[in-house]
Write a structure and sequence with these properties.
alpha+beta, single chain, 4-stranded mixed beta sheet, 4 strands, 144 residues, Ribosomal Protein S5, domain 2
């Protein structure tokens, strides 16, 4: 037992330097888009990048770090547990992919029904692919 009363091998008893690097990539409250005006602005002014699992819209924001807004509608996900799982998968994908985004990017992600059949790794790969597709599209590329 260590001084804190926790077993010395427990995750809570570890020093910050002993933790895995991805543990530090948490989704902070300032990384969430909550303002309906910002949502509406992004949804009406930014072209969508459509994938099998999600629809993505990215714009240059004014913050210091990337922010995400999630949309999981009752029309697409009837059960609350399905909406929660879709949000959780999209948040985790964003948490892992945030280093690929430019500082201050605002990202709105709309979940699609197919996301429920996928594991977190597949959702992450799709998000990376859509981010790259949006980047090519905004830089004047073909946007394949």
């Amino acid at each position: 037992m260590c001084v804190s009363g926790l077993p010395s091998g427990s995750a809570l008893g570890k020093e910050a330097s002993d933790r895995h690097p991805s543990d530090r990539l948490t989704l902070r409250p300032d990384q969430r888009i909550n303002d309906p005006v910002v949502f509406r602005d992004i949804l009406t002014s930014v072209p969508a990048v459509v994938g099998r699992l999600m629809v993505l819209r990215i714009r240059e924001g004014d913050g210091r770090r990337p922010r995400i807004g999630l949309i999981t509608s009752k029309r697409t996900f009837r059960r609350a547990v399905d909406r929660s799982r879709a949000r959780r998968l999209m948040r985790e994908a964003f948490r892992r992919a945030q280093h690929e985004l430019e500082a201050g990017s605002d990202l709105v992600v709309i979940g699609r029904q197919a996301i429920l059949q996928e594991k977190a790794q597949a959702v992450y790969r799709e998000m990376l692919r859509l981010i790259e597709k949006a980047r090519r599209r905004s830089s004047g590329g073909r946007g394949a």
